[in-house]
Task: structure prediction
Amino acid sequence: MCVALEEMSQHRMGLYNPGCGVFGRYPPPAIWAGSKEQIAKYAVPTIRDGLKTFFAITEPSGGSDPAGAIQTRAEKRGDRWVLNGRKVFTSRAHDAPWGLVWARTDKAKGRGGISCFILERGTPGFTAKPIKVIRTSAIPNDVTLEDCEVPAENLVGAEGQGLDLAFDLLVKNRFPYSACNLGVAVAAHRMAIAHAKQRSTFGAPLSQRQAIQWMLADAEVELRACRWIIWEGAWKADRGEDARVEASIAKLYSSEVLGRVIDSAVQIHGAYGVSKEFPLERWYREARVRRIGEGPSEVHRMVIARSLFR
Result:
């Protein structure tokens, strides 16, 4: 998947819409912990028909510490669960037919009191308002849940298992996420090389300027290192091994390499780099989000540091 996504993301909107969606989409991985009926009803059509989905976990009180931040409540009433609360920065919630929502079912149990639910768009009490941000696809939303009723069979996995499912989702998703970072960086790097070869200043092409050569050489080294970091982590995840630290390393490094490589590409292009005629200015804007989404760089550094002292 990482190999494919690196290639699929090398176009103007590749960071958030690799391949423009023509190669299909995949549901939030936590759905695979659901029942056979849930998988048949939600996961299979998503893959078959290329449907959009969402997962609502981040709340106004925080996103990087869901165990402490989740305040959305789910109360059991007969054969239904009633959800009340608010989620923010929930991508695609305004136009996806279904998604997953994490809510607290037992306040006393802390981390173990959080559960995962399937929620369909159009459910009474569910509203999603798009939030304007610097990226232009996979629009995030401010989601409100007001006495939102879902059937009891929409609970994914066991009650209180939600956070374990969420972390499994987030860890494994960081490898394809990182591969998209790499792919767009590769595309920007390729553009910078091509421009340096054909653009001349003071009687010589940019490719003969040592300052430009070193910028491109440094980018090449980082891109190659980034690729192997992603592949090693994905390989461990495929083998069923604990890849949490590798996921943090891949996400941290790929998002920061992406920013540096695109910044250099913009600089090498000069005024063309900030022109909307080229994809670089869009990548430059959207790359900034990648150091925050899927966990900010600082949190991933904490994860890595903890593993060193464990």
